[in-house]
């Protein structure tokens, strides 16, 4: 532990210089009790949140931690970094904590924005964070998705030039729910990182059987993995995520934090630690998500709404053949959706809620 504290201290000093049971039996009800300003039950299917959590273990840990949240518990953060590292068969030096994976994405964007150049990203993907990079001077190059809404890795590879500072891959992709085939992605990483940094966002990977790329960072200094406790662990509001990278890369990125790993609260860290111990909650979340997602896709297709096969906790679909006003139907039924992401085909996305919520969603469309 002392080596880690020394490393954190040095970094901070540098910065100053610069058989499934029902979920109700083990999870806290959430969306069912949400209300809007008119005190009408609101179904939130907008932000890809986990509707079944946090788990009982995480909730208890967070409640218990409130009484000691008047202290800076660096030891707790040390323990969390150790547990995350163990999960990925790495060391604490490969981990950087952040207030959600959004902070990690922001830090990486800021780091590479110090140098002029460009950022390669898919069109359409999770790109809200890229405004930081663009405002700081990076030019965004958007590569269209393939016809089946997947990353066009070949085209992204061909787009790399001497000014390319970073490539961003969201896998599974948000909002399309598509996933890069493992072998194809590995080949892409091997080639692309010879020429630039690659940031892979694995926010939704836990909903799949595909392994993380975390094992590659021990040798590859140009690969950065962003992960979060927001989705599968249902801690979106707690704002806790982390980066996985080579120790040298972690040290570079952390210099943009006031204090390395210091943006995570005691309450959030306690919830994250407990979540890592609750394998059953994760397994049950995946099982229920798969079941409800299948129901949702089947029902949408019965309504002649084309869906893209999803590997996450949301579905991407075309409203081109839907004759009603989709968003007006949601509004009338107190359901929060998202937007039109692609005008051609009128593509939108919906989060997978509970079975009850998705039945209400389908009823609203009928």
Can you characterise this structure?
It is a single chain. Helix 3 runs parallel beside helix 9 (266-277) and helix 10 runs parallel beside helix 12 (355-365). 38% of the residues lie in helices and 15% in strands. Strand 9 (307-308) and strand 10 form a beta hairpin. The longest helix has 24 residues, at 279-302. The N and C termini lie far apart (58 Å). The protein is α/β, with parallel strands linked by helices and 366 residues long. The strands form three sheets. Strands 2-8-7-6-5-3-4 form a seven-stranded mixed beta sheet, sandwiched between helices. Strands 9-10-12 form a three-stranded antiparallel beta sheet, covered by helices on one side. Mean pLDDT is 87; it is low at 1-39. It has twelve helices and twelve strands.
Spell out the helices and strands N to C.
HEHHEHEHEHEHEEEHHHEEHEEH
Structural class: alpha/beta
Biggest sheet details: 7 strands, mixed
Number of strands: 12
Total helix count?
Answer: 12
Enumerate the spans where pLDDT stays under 50 for 5 or more consecutive residues: 1-39
Q: What's the overall average pLDDT, rounded?
A: 87
Shape: globular
How far do the termini sit from each other?
Answer: 58 Å
Assign a percent range to the helix content: 25-40%
Strand order of the largest sheet: 2-8-7-6-5-3-4
The whole-angstrom Rg is: 21 Å
Strand percentage, roughly? Answer: 15-25%
């Amino acid at each position: 532990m002392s080596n880690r504290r020394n490393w954190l201290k040095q970094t901070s000093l540098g910065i100053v210089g610069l058989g499934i049971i029902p979920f109700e039996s083990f999870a806290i009800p959430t969306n069912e009790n949400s209300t809007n300003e008119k005190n009408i039950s609101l179904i939130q299917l907008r932000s890809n949140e986990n509707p079944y959590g946090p788990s009982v273990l995480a909730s208890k840990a967070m409640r218990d931690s409130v009484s000691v949240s008047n202290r800076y518990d660096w030891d707790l953060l040390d323990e969390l970094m150790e547990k995350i590292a163990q999960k990925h068969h790495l060391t604490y030096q490969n981990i950087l904590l952040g207030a959600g994976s959004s902070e990690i994405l922001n830090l990486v964007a800021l780091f590479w924005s110090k140098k002029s150049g460009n950022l390669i990203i898919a069109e359409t993907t999770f790109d809200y964070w890229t405004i930081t990079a663009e405002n700081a001077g990076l030019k965004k190059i958007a590569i269209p998705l393939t016809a089946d809404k997947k990353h066009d890795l070949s085209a992204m590879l061909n787009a790399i030039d001497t000014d390319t500072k970073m490539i961003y891959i969201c896998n599974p992709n948000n909002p399309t729910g598509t996933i890069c085939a493992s072998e194809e992605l590995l080949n892409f990483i091997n080639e692309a990182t010879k020429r630039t940094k690659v940031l892979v966002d694995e926010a939704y990977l836990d909903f799949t059987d595909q392994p993380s790329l975390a094992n590659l960072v021990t040798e590859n200094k140009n690969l950065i993995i962003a992960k979060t406790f927001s989705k599968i662990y249902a801690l979106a509001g707690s704002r806790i995520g982390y980066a996985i990278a080579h120790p040298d890369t972690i040290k570079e990125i952390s210099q943009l934090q006031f204090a390395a790993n210091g943006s995570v609260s005691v309450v959030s860290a306690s919830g994250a630690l407990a979540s890592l111990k609750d394998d059953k909650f994760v397994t049950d979340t995946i099982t229920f998500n798969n079941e409800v997602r299948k129901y949702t896709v089947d029902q949408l297709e019965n309504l002649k709404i084309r869906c893209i096969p999803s590997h996450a906790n949301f579905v991407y679909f075309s409203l081109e053949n839907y004759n009603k006003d989709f968003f007006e139907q949601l509004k009338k039924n107190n359901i929060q959706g998202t937007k039109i992401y692609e005008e051609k085909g009128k593509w939108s996305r919906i989060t997978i809620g509970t079975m009850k919520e998705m039945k209400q969603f389908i009823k609203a469309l009928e």
